Amino acid sequence: MDTPERNQIGTPKAKFEDSPVFNYINSLSPIKPVKSVHITQTFSSLSFASLPSVFTSPHVSSHKESRFLRRRNPSDPSKPESSLESGNKVSVNEDAAEFYINAEELHESCVPGDSVGEASAEPPSEHSKFVIELPRNLKYDCGSPECDAATSCGTEAGCESEAAALSAPLVPYAQKTSENGSSDGEAHLQSICQSGQRREGTGCDWESLISDATDLLIFDSPNASEAFRGIMQNPLDSVTRFCNSLMPRLSQNDINDEQNVLVLDTVGSGEQPETEDPSSQYREASQPEDTELMQDHLNSRMGSNQIEKEDQFNCKPGLNLHRGLRRRCLDFETAGARRKSLDNVPNSSSSMLSQSDEKITTNDKQLVPIKPGGESARCILPGIGLHLNALATTSKDYKTIKRENMAYGRQLSLPNLAASAHSPTAGQGPGHESFSSASSERDMDGTENGVQLLQDASQEPAFLANEEFNQNSPKKKRHVLLSIYSSLNYYVMFIFIFMRKFEQAGETESSCKRCNCKKSKCLKLYCECFAAGVYCIEPCSCQECFNKPIHEDTVLATRKQIESRNPLAFAPKVIRTADPVPEYGEESSKTPASARHKRGCNCKKSSCLKKYCECYQGGVGCSISCRCEGCKNAFGRKDGSFVGTETEADEEETEACDKSAAEKHQQKNEIQRNEEQRQDSALPSTPLRLSRQFSLPFSSKNKPPRSSTFNIGSSSGLYTITIQKLGKPNILRPESKLEGHNQAVAEDEMPEILQGDGSPSTGIKTASPNGKRVSPPNNEFGPSPGRRAGRKLILQSIPSFPSLTPQH
DNA sequence: GAGTTTGAAACT
DNA sequence: CAGTTTCAAACTC
Length: 808
Fold this sequence. Notes:
Blueprint lengths: L3 H10 L6 H9 L21 H6 L11 H4 L11 H4 L6 H19 L3 H7 L5 H26 L4 H12 L3 H7 L4 H20 L4 H11 L5 H12 L1 H20 L2 H4 L1 H4 L15 H4 L4 H12 L3 H11 L6 H4 L7 H13 L2 H21 L7 H6 L16 H17 L5 H4 L9 H14 L4 H17 L7 H35 L19 H5 L19 H14 L8 E3 L18 E3 L16 H4 L30 H10 L1 H24 L5 H6 L20 H13 L13 H10 L2 H4 L29 H13 L11
Antiparallel strand pairs: 1-2
Helix pairs in contact: 2-14, 2-28, 6-7, 6-8, 6-9, 6-27, 8-9, 9-11, 10-11, 10-27, 12-13, 12-28, 13-14, 14-24, 14-28, 14-35, 18-28, 19-22, 21-22, 21-35, 26-27, 27-28
The protein binds a DNA duplex (12 and 13 nucleotides) through loops.
């Protein structure tokens, strides 16, 4: 699948692969960049000129106008003040835009000299300012502590620059809250700048500040606190670490488009104050992709109403590519969880959450039927959802899963976001307690998504602006430190952007399935779409297709039926493992066996050299499991000693003649099985939610286009996030909350291992509901670790069917 | 694009 | 569980 978009994605991506941020992303993202190009470019040197190419993809079409571009310059008199007047929180985009823009202005205001020239040297668009902003902040972060010592704060510009960077997050509020014009905001900012100078003039007590920050900013874990301390002391290098402490939770949200919507809508009235910018020059202008990325990222965090608005804006249904062309997958658990969330959310916030949730649902539904929008786009943004089939994992993934698990555990321990944090008055409450509360919650929970951070970043100053700055007050320190903290949102956001893009890049590699079913109604495993866990979409040429959201009930029922027959029916056919599957017997394949077909093929005539062969199709070699005849599988023959010429009869004859060998073989298998069981019990079990969160280790590049490779990812995260929002305590058994037949499936078919607490001691046994052997008999040599994982995962997915709502 | 081949899925 | 049928993808022309 050497599509142009992949090429586009792959090459520039590598430019920052060596950066800490990338490394971090790498560690987080379920998408494993497989094409690594060695380009040693640090994050600080990351030029956004490269970003467009990095993320250039058809779905990031020109129709996606930049929200930033749409933003007017704050100084633009035509800019509506609706964001203030409405009393609602402005959209993240607006905040973000102002955030960056005003940071620039702040810089100018604080540094009347050179910086102005820098900023005004060219009439950049706002997003280009943003482009500038990141390095600046990085510079600030990099230099501040040490630089202070070096320069003794003698360089005014340096200090002011720092102050500007520090104050950047404060500016938006300053502007918004100053009804008397920009003077107040400037004064406010200048005071911050001055305070910054004074701070440095008084000895640049960074250590003390950092210490205070560590104390004031209530981190949810010692790690986060430590990381924050580190980031202040060695910012650039520590950004990753700090984000590391924050990101897992963020990523869970961010991975999900749908869930992201929750955030802003929970606050506002639902009507975004943003008014359509009649001037379209921004849109028409060629936009750097970074802006699109930002927009994409932020849009994903916006309320659905904004998305709808954007749809109107585009006036091109189906071109809302970043969401609309998502191929609806059978990630039913998300819908169920979402629906469930409506019931469980407590009063105060439930209305908001529910509102947003419903918006999400509605929006999602609206977008489900994928209408003409370009096939490529469809492929670019296929189902960002849990393909129920894609449930294998590898031991390699344990790290990630473990990490996520820990993060999640922290989340669960966190208090719910208090309503005050979201309440319109929260941002304006002058009280110190209020501030502390808000900040605390932000620290503890605010990272639940970047929007919240951004939002808060723009709101925190609200407190500050209403307070008199006391130079000696701890509040000032807190303000500064919170500003610093807020500036970290930059990094978080960028990380999210990268993650999203990588995620999308991964999705492009698969999920573009199309069937041609005529008689099966796409409700049998004959249908590739159905088998892959995705709905049929337009490219399909199926007839009488029932595999569509409108027939969700039927689909689920059928699926359930099939799974009742074979719980692994929807599991990936090819299980890849990080570690080579142990070969059993000297005669086994000589080829690397990092993956095996779940059940083995049964080819008779194709010699496993054509895609008729599922092994070959899956890009894996045949194994003992296969019953193929005359195997010549290029990826690895079933039996190296029988390559090609022998027929199965020959093999059987040989085996019959070598009975002792067979017995030996069996013994080996037994030993191996036991060994694997021991290993498995030593490994952390994979909780349900985790299994849904991380994509398979499948590297789609190895797979033929039609193979059943699936991406987990976004929606899976949604599932988890929904649980978070609901505060469901038992993340391991979310299925218990499901209703109706889905629950029946869960309890009836959930293997013991999955119904338990997921403790490692549950072992590797995979039992079918009937107690029958789930795996085909050919697994006599025992499952590989990856296969075991796959079993667990697929079975865990069984109960995830939510109650359905007919799609329209 | 139509027809054939193939092997998995489904059925008995 | 084995044999048969059905089915749709893969393949060929």
